[in-house]
Amino acid sequence: MKTVYSDDHRLHAAKKELVDGTLMPAHERPQRADIILARVREVGLGEILAPEDFGVAPLARVHDGRYLAFLESAWDMWKETGREWDALPLVWPVRGLRAIEPEDIDGKLSYFSFDAGAPITAGTWPAVRASANVALTAARLVKDGERVAFGLCRPPGHHAAADYCGGYCFLNNAAIAAQWLRDQGAQRISVLDIDYHHGNGTQSIFYERADVQFLSLHGDPRQEYPYFLGYADEIGAGRGEGYNVNYPMEWGTAYDAWGQALKDACHEVASYAPDAVVVSLGVDTFEKDPISQFKLKSPDYLDIGKTMAGLGLPTVILMEGGYAVDEIGINAVNVLTGFDD
Ligand code: SP5
Ligand code: ZN
């Protein structure tokens, strides 16, 4: 299988993250992609390609224009106020407050985010552009006839909605790839999200659409981030009713139950009969992940790849989360080798 990778991910390196009420070194760090790439090389997975530049048009098919303008200008606006460290929001328009875009950069950061988990740095915009181009290039490989391709995206994307960032995510790479495949003539796309966290951004983007099915296996929102989306009764709305499928699972879930949910999700995908599948691949379901509570083991990832390959559909696999950096290469690439075998 071919891998698409760009060194530009390095341009985004947040220094700190707010965890457990304290600022700690960010979990979502450049080393994650380096280790996955090293493992791709080590197992001889296949050719490693640089992304092509698709421009902003495919981003604007998914994201709000004002949000893209904000992402592009946020660092300069923040820096103009004399601050040289990562930009973070502090206030959100929750119940009873008014969601009107402020002029001030601190207000804009709040307006265009849902948590303090997506710090903006000097290189964030070029890095997230490169990550989306990685996803789009992987999608193009599959559109042009590859059975499967791996987009080694970093920063990840599935928490980003049409007009807000959060959870280490800025541009929704999976949604951008799915929409691009639709725009290239695919009739139906399934987005299968197996990151530990619910793909709230992707769900919200496609919630009222029948042409993109969204399925997510994740920590139960009663217990787990992002808390405010991901319940099983979220089945889609309007024309999208029946095309959103959530599998919330409780803390401590191991592969027996998780693998059953994956099989069920694959049945749903098969019934939908999409032209292609976009996989949001997170390996933060791993037992040693520092911020997660599932119990998957390294060999389980081989079986995940094999199960998804069993669909027999063209598949674009895009990297999302996974923070046990020592094993992130083994786990992510196990999915890919399991798929290829
Ligand atoms: C792409 C992705 O995986 N984003 C995840 C963002 C998670 N951000 C919030 C994590 C909250 C972690 N709380 C765990 C406390 C451990 N002591
Ligand atoms: Zn995650």
TrEMBL record:
Pfam families: Hist_deacetyl (PF00850). Keywords: Hydrolase, Metal-binding, Zinc. The keyword Lipid biosynthesis does not apply. Coiled coil: none annotated. Its cofactor is Zn(2+). Residues 28-334 form the Histone deacetylase domain. GO terms for molecular function: histone deacetylase activity; hydrolase activity; metal ion binding. GO terms for biological process: epigenetic regulation of gene expression. Belongs to the histone deacetylase family. This is Histone deacetylase family protein. It comes from Microbaculum marinisediminis.
